[in-house]
């Protein structure tokens, strides 16, 4: 996100990769929100991942956590070997999932997050914002 905020060329390249107006709109609002929060801009741990996949296919990872599960953040439990996340290569086990296709996962139950991930099956692209602990 830090690079996207600072580089209009990268913003343009990303916009041309996105196939839906909804995804393009979400990226623009995400960039505006990022610019308003300097702690995110100065943090290289927040990443925007674009997963390209077949319509009807999952995102290629399983999750753990939720407010109903020991108040844990939503994290990537496992990345599936031939799934969209593995093929793209950025998402790793242990990453915190902040949002999927513009839907914040903060404060959601495990069941609500699973439902959000299932909704992402209906498109050919998914936009996932993750946070990775650098330590």
From TrEMBL:
Record SUPFAM superfamilies: PDZ domain-like
Cited SMART domains: PDZ
Domain PDZ residue range list: 48-120
InterPro entries named in the record: PDZ, PDZ_sf
Pfam (any one): PDZ
Protein name: PDZ domain-containing protein
């Amino acid at each position: 996100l830090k690079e996207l905020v600072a580089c209009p060329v990268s913003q343009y390249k990303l916009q041309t990769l996105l196939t839906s107006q909804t995804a393009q709109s979400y990226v623009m609002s995400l960039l505006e929100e990022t610019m308003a929060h300097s702690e995110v801009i100065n943090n290289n741990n927040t990443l925007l991942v674009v997963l390209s996949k077949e319509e009807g296919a999952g995102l290629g990872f399983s999750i753990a956590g939720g407010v109903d599960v020991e108040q844990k953040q939503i994290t990537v439990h496992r990345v599936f070997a031939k799934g969209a996340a593995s093929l793209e290569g950025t998402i790793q086990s242990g990453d915190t999932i902040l949002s999927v296709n513009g839907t914040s996962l903060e404060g959601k139950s495990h069941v609500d997050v699973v439902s959000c991930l299932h909704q992402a099956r209906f498109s050919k692209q998914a936009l996932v914002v993750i946070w990775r602990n650098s330590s």
